Amino acid sequence: MRWTSFAFLTVAHRRDIGHRPSSSSACSSASMTTTCLQMSAATVQTTTPEATGKGFSGDFQSTELSPLSFKPMNDKEMSLMHLLQAHFPSQALYAVVKLGIPDILGDQFLTVTNMVDKLDIPTLNRNALLRILRLLTTIGIIEQRLIEDEYLIEFGLSDLGKLLQTTHSNSMTAFAHYWLDPALFRSWTELPEILAGSYDTKASSPYTRANQGTNIVDYYRNNPQAAEYAGQVVTRVSPGEIPSVLKCVDWGAFKGKTIVDIGGGHGEVMEAVQKEHSGITCICLDLPDVIAEAPHVPKDVEMIPGDMFLPETIPSCDVIFAKHVLCDWYDADVLEALQSFHSVLSADGKLIIGDAVLVDGEEANGLKQTMVNLDVQLLLVGGKMERSRSQWAGLAARAGFRLDSVAFPPTPTLHILTFTKI
């Protein structure tokens, strides 16, 4: 005799490879899943294939549940179970987005047969599509309704689901392709090895290991469609950040002073500052190839090639601004950059950093922070890290800066930290 898992019994009964249990212990196929989830430690006693002289395709001699002393899951246990299944709906969502189902549905309700006809994919698995659409109704992406006279189910998009249409003015389709891309998703399977310290993530990123030696830069270079989705995500997020930069910093207070935007790209932020505040000297500093590729020189913005780790390439100034630059470096490198900034700033100079600031301490408990998710993603793809207020304060103090304030505009990817040189 041996003990087998209850999950195996489910498979056995669904495939009809064993005798059904007696009526006193049977689970109907309709309630099998619910019963399995509610049993905390049920086991099944069966004879082994060796004992019966038959393989797994033969009959089992006996199947007895022992014991049936269990209780339904409480709310906390159910919440945890749903959390552990969180990747189920996200993968289902990715599958229907790849098929283009949201665009096919439009504002209509369609049956699976209708959708299959519109997709024109002869090999499409209708049963799988039906089950996936049902799953997506549980998270508010899809809605279903019953045509009672015909015993048919039709599916349509909820308002949330319509955001996955490519034609929607606020389409989130690119986000689905970007975050759920299999190459990116695979990198999450490396987390146990990272935590165990099995390898140096600085030498080889989890993303690279999960994708047979291909790093994320090479992947996007060889997969232009994936690169396009990534670019669309950046394009969608970045424009909303400039209004936050203008609102959260009192740029008018720097009239008659010089501002250097470190890693300023093609000068977009400084150009926006100049349009609203005259009398400020605005300089955009970035690596030589970035400056050389600028499509045009923004009005009243000086474009200078340089390197934040080489203070001799940074003009003397009163304010240094850096947006989404320092999150790409480890603490030791950030400290070096901050010391470089310190050396070129005037005596009462200001350092303004635009990055995601993670909430920590008791305030973080249970708080949904988009950037906490993205911080772990940075760990996986070979990026560096987002930091909390306390981490920024500690690093800045070592470089000779005092943290004055942190502004939290509505943009989840950008917060504004202001420091004073001391």
> Whole-number radius of gyration?
29 Å
> Quick one: how many beta strands?
14
Number of helices: 20
Mean pLDDT rating: 85
Would you kindly provide a written description of the structure presented here, covering whatever features stand out?
- The structure is a single chain.
- With 422 residues, this protein is α/β, with parallel strands linked by helices.
- 40% of the residues lie in helices and 18% in strands.
- It contains 20 helices and 14 strands.
- A 7-stranded mixed β-sheet has the order 8-7-6-9-10-14-13, sandwiched between helices. Strands 1-2-3 form a 3-stranded antiparallel β-sheet. It has a two-stranded antiparallel ribbon with strand order 4-5.
- Helix 13 (216-222) packs across helix 14 (224-237).
- The longest helix has 14 residues, at 224-237.
- It is elongated.
- It starts with a strand and ends with a strand.
- The model is unreliable at 1-62 (pLDDT under 50).
